[in-house]
Amino acid sequence: MQGMSERQYAAHVGLSRGAIQKAKDTGRLVQHADGSIDVLASDARRAAMTDPAKQRGSKAVAAPATPKLKPVPDTALSAVGETLRDEGLPAPVSGGGTTFLQARTANEVLKAQERKLKLAQLKGELIDRNRAVGVVFRLAREERDAWVTWPARAAALMASELGVMIADHGSLEPAMMQKVLEAHVRAQLESLAEVRIDLR
């Protein structure tokens, strides 16, 4: 036999025997008159007819492609570091860059947090922020209105009770009691109005 058998040539180029048979059928191999494979001529023909990126084995000469990567924004890198720190995991050293493992870990942490929030919302443990603000505002307004009208209702009763207690000095006028109560209630409500609720 002048050249190599299919099995020998398959071992020579690092391919399966089936791949060598297919190459023979498509004319990518050169054969001697006895049907054996001409190694040098076949190697040259395969190199000319095959995309280097698709070659395998010892004869593959494909250079690894270098993908063009977009630069990662600083805000994304700082978000990765913040997420890792929140979970007590090692964050990137300042100016040292983020490793793929750190970025992937941060991504998994964020996905877990998102699933946890969705689950809590489905269970009714979370409410809409705008709705919560509206409810608090309505309750505060109802509370304020109740206090504004309270002096008028309570003044006569309080004047009567205090009039009994300080009978030596004469009875207190309900109108005067109401005026004093209203002044103090309004002052208190003004101080409460300065309180701001932070729902962040």
Automatic annotation (TrEMBL):
Sequence segments annotated as region (Disordered): 47-73
Protein name as annotated: Elements of external origin
Domain of life assignment: Bacteria
